[in-house]
Amino acid sequence: MAKHEPFNFKSKDELAAKSEALRLPLPLSDDISVLFQKYDFGGRAIPNRLAVHPMEGFDSQPDGSPDELAFRRYHRFASGGSGLIWFEAVSVVPEGRSNPRQMWLHAKNIDAFSRLVEHTRRMARNTFDSRHELFLVVQLTHSGRYSRPEGKLVPRVASYNPFLDKDKDKEGIHMLTDDELAAIQDKYVDAAGLASKAGFDAVDIKACHGYLINDLLAAFERKNSRYGGEFENRTRFLIETIERIRAEVPGIEIAVRLSLWDAVPYPYGFGANRSDPKQPDLAETASVIEKLKECGCRFINVTMGNPYRDPSVGRPFDRSLPGSTEPDEHPLESIYRITETTAILQKQFEPLPFVGTGYSWLRQFWPYLAAGIIAANKAHFIGQGRSSIAYPDAPRDLMENQKLSPNKTCIACSRCTELMRRGGRAGCVIRDKEIYAREYKKFVGSI
């Protein structure tokens, strides 16, 4: 492992030289035109290979409906040019919200979500033309151990995890029963039906970052339960949920944002290498993806690690959150691990499309890696999370100028996460100062 360093590249050639010095063969390409190839999804053309990842803004109304900042954010994404927009995590039950302002979809606010979907599609058509038809996915979730429906942490978990729950009173953590989990599954199915009526093309059954379904996949230590222990039991909730949605909500496509590796030691982390906790073991991950493919999942959006425990695994940074330690590897090592792991699985499960991740630390040079990945078929789509918040019109700039402005890119400063953790509305403090610098000052302090 090399020493952690902040981003300091002045050119793509400098980036390539550092990659070579670290013996990390990142597939950089000068031809970015592949990013704007259409993708045939069951006879429907997705305009390009660029995707917005699900990133919570925490700007709903008390009843879970999107408010004006949510409309603003998806307006910016739609007019920015990405062909695939993966809407943020929307809770299926009020007690599963990770923030009092997290969106929550239910029968009484479906009209508000319908307006948001229609507004997003209209903005894309107005900016481009009728052929730029967005593909919209909404992520459905239950926050599990990270539930904060009233602002105070109220963990609801499938299995106690000493690595993720070590700062909590074990006796104060609510362990969900099998009956409670079955009732929550009903809510996922209900929410999928509402999402379909609201006009979304697909629902994502979120299975990453320590939230409830990811918690279940790692529930090796859950005893005497149909949802824990053996592989079939740990995957039961996810697979049954998808099978039920397929049967009960005809017409909606199904996706999963899946943690390929939690970076938490066995038996408390999914995808853990039992002999080396610092490395993934893809055998069980591949087995889950095989089951997902068989039951009708049509998209895999990949991620790694747990941002509450070690955010650098999935999204390398320059500035860590206050109180966090500096990673023991160079950011390019993190990027290489996640992009190559994705490539291995994309090849294994071709033609199931994977949405890649882990590019934003590269700033204005990420399109060159993205183009190399698409050209080599190492992923079918390139996802941008915090980078989309900082630079929502990056795809449009690439279309028009064939390059990005370094003055608009994400600088991996972690302030959007810091703001979110402090209870504020999440956005880019540096590139969207009008709103979020004020929000940061209110909840955190001066920049």
Key words describing this protein structure:
single chain; 447 residues; alpha/beta; eight-stranded parallel beta barrel; two-stranded antiparallel ribbon
Biggest sheet overview: 8 strands, parallel, barrel
Outline the low-pLDDT stretches: none
Q: Could you give the count of β-strands?
A: 12
Q: Structural class of the helices, strands and pairings?
A: alpha/beta
Overall radius of gyration = 20 Å
Number of helices: 14
Helix content range: 25-40%
How widely separated are the two ends? 32 Å
Determine the mean pLDDT: 96
Give, in spatial order, the strands making up the sheet with the most strands. Answer: 3-4-5-8-9-10-11-12
3D shape: globular
Strand residue content: 5-15%
- Provide the succession of SSEs: HEEEHEHEEEHEHHHEHEHEHEHHHH
Gist?
The chain has 447 residues and is an alpha/beta fold. The protein has helices at 12-21, 68-80, 110-127, 178-198, 212-217, 231-234, 236-248, 282-294, 331-349, 366-375, 386-390, 394-401, 415-421, 433-443, and strands at 39-41, 44-46, 50-52, 84-91, 135-141, 156-157, 174-175, 202-205, 253-259, 299-303, 354-356, 381-384.
